[in-house]
Structures are given as C-alpha cells and as structure tokens.
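Final report, Chapter 2: Outcomes

The project's central promise was a pipeline that accepts a single protein chain and returns its three-dimensional structure in a standardized token representation, suitable for archiving and comparison. That pipeline is now operational. To close this chapter, we reproduce one record exactly as it appears in the project archive, with the input sequence first and the structure output second.
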Amino acid sequence: MADRHETNKFKRLVFFNRFFRSEVSGSVLLLICTVVALAWANSPWAESYHHLAHTKVGVSFGDHTFKLSLQHWVNDLLMVLFFFVVGLEIKREILVGHLSSPRQAILPVTAAIGGMIIPAAVYVIFNSSGDGARGWGIPMATDIAFAIGILSLLSRAPIGLKVFLTALAIADDLGAILVIALFYTDRIIWEALGVSAFFLFLIFIASKLGFRRPGIYIGLALCVWVSVFLSGIHATVAGILVAMLVPIRSRIEPGVFLARLSEGLNYFQRTELTKESMISNHTHLDVVEDLNCATGEMRPPGLSLEHHLHPVQAFFVLPMFALFNAGVTLDSSTLSFPPTTVVLGVVAGLLIGKQVGITLFSWIAIRFGGAVMPEGVNWLQIYGASCLAGVGFTMSLFVSELAFDDPGILSEAKVGVLIASLISGIWGYIILRSALGKEGE
C-alpha cells in the first residue's frame, strides 16, 4: 500500500512538473503579445489596431447573418478553449491531484477564498456605488501563467511552494468561473439553457457508449457553445460544462489492459515479427491494432486532452487574448492624477487585497483548519506567493470586459489591472528572492 501511494505521488509530481514548465514558457509569449498590444495601441498606427479588433467576421444562413468582431470571437469562442482546459485542470486536481483530499486542499482552497473575498471587499470600499460598482469581481482573479512564470525565475523555489501557488490559482479560477456565471449574467433565456443541457446530455451518453470519433464531440460541443451563447450566460462557461463531462480516469481496468498486452506480446514472441510481416500477415496487423486500442483506452481522456490542448491554450489562445484586449490607450484620461476610483479599486484590490487575503486565510487554515505548511515553505514565502497572486492579468481583463460597457471605465479598469499586475509581479519576485536567500539566485 505504501509503495502504491509513493507511485501515485511520483506520477502526480511528474505531471505537475510538465504542467508547470508549459505555463512558464507560455507566459513569455503572453508578455510579448501584451507589450505589442500596448505599443501598437499607443503608436501612430493606433487606429489600425482598433480597426482590426472591431472588424466584423461571421457567417450567413440565407437571410440570416451572424457576425462578431474579431475581439469578440477571441473573447467568446477562443476563450472557450481556455476555460475548457481550465475545467480539465480543475477536475484533475479535484479527483486525482493536489485538491483530491481534504488535507491537501484545505490550505490552497482557503487561501484562494481569502484571495477572492478580501480583494473584492477592498474594491467595494472605493466603488460602493456608481458606474464602477460592477467591477468588484476584477481583482478576485489570479493569472496562473504569469504567476508561475515569475516563480520559475527563482530556480531553487521549493516544490511545495510551486504546488501551493498552482493549486491556489486553480481554485481561484474555479471561483472566478462561478462569479462570471452567477453575477455577470444580466438575463437568462431558460429555453436556450435547456437546449444546452440536452446537448450536454448527448455528450454524456456518447462518452458512456464509448464513441471515440472526435468529430461527434466537437459538433456537440459547438452546439453547447451556441446554446449557452444565446442563453445570456457568457459563452465561455460552455467550456467548463463540457470539461466536467470528460472522463479523467481510464476507460478499462488495469488488469484488462495488462492481459491484452500480455496476450499480444506472447503472440509476437511465438511468431516472427518484421517490418514487412504485417503486410503479408494480417493477424500481425490485427494484434498491433488491438495493442494500440488497448493503450488508447488505458490513457485517461481528460489527461490526454489537457496534454494536447494546453500548448494550444498557452501559445495561441492566451496570446491572442492579450493582443486583442491589452491594447489600452494611455492618455490623460486613463492616467489622470489622482486616479479614478475604478483604477484605485482594482490596484488596491489586486495589490493589497490579495496579499492580506491569502496570507491571513492561510494562517487561519493552519491555525484552526487543520492544514499544514507545505514542506520546505515558510511564512515569508507564503506572503511572496500571495504577492504573485496579485498578477490578475488574463482573468482580470476578461472580467473587466464583462463588467463594463462604457469604453472609458473599461480602459480605467484595464489600466488598473496592468499597473497592479506589474507591481505585484515585481514585488512578489523581490520578496521571494529575499525569502530564498542565495538559493533563489
């Protein structure tokens, strides 16, 4: 039993390290696209940037036309893939990862709750009423790619700290998704939502019946997206709903898998297998196909999808989102002094609220909730991680788009996100480098 526990722990660590490295590399491209968007939007060619973002693209069905701007296609369709991968990450962590047991989950989940409640409360202090009141969800978010990317600069950071920050950010993503679904939906069309539930049910049935053709699932997922889009709930929620139906465990039992492997290998040991034998001996080809099918059925669908789609999310979806959403015009109205209450609320929420909320709730979880400090981690490192969590960026910009229709207030919110994320990233790096001493160099 102990050996099995150690093996599972090793597998989780291997998968985590692969996930961690992909987030780090993706954050570099995300930063480049952010800089390009800002530079382009504040250059002599700024008009071409805004023209591109608002160019309408769509499809026609007879007399009916469905068009969205390129920015909306990115935010409403491409980001569905982002949320689909996030949903797979959440499901994996809850079922088999670092949130799979109460003892493991208490600290990061409690810290994430504090990192959402306190920043929202800080924002409300500055914007309890008026046009900026809807933005309370903006400072609740953490950008996992940037936060992990900055932490990766400290090569000697303990694995316990990396796991804590990653699990916290994933729990934070789940909270942000619930906030989007519950509080940033103005009107729900229940008929359309019922249609989406029907297509989700078809996906569930297809999965249970063992259908393996990707086209079936892609078609049904597009139907879910369209129906959720028409329901009034933000279309990206469709990604989470579909992800929750993807199996995270193998389709067949390990014993069956091993028996099929053993049978196939024994057959080949009794016969002469060559590169040409499968052409003349169809039984060889059948056995190879069976081994391939057995391997495919043993591979967990959720983990396989996450493995294949994570690079697409990290190297295409998020950079495109940054390119079309980070291009804020920096002028006297957005950089006014004193800052507007929206800018102050976002900056204070991400910069101060995250630090206070995560550190305080982590202490409460350890002091009263039965949580334990991760191995090799101290309180200064927890505080440093809470500073990095103030890098809201992707999710904060996304919530800003949902919160505000007024272009002026939206620009103020985005400026606040960019300022707070920059300061939080630098301050968090300084704190963690100090906490790690020479080991962090």
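Archive annotation: The chain has two domains: 2-73+97-184+310-440, 254-294.
This record, like all others produced under the grant, will remain available to the consortium after the project formally closes.
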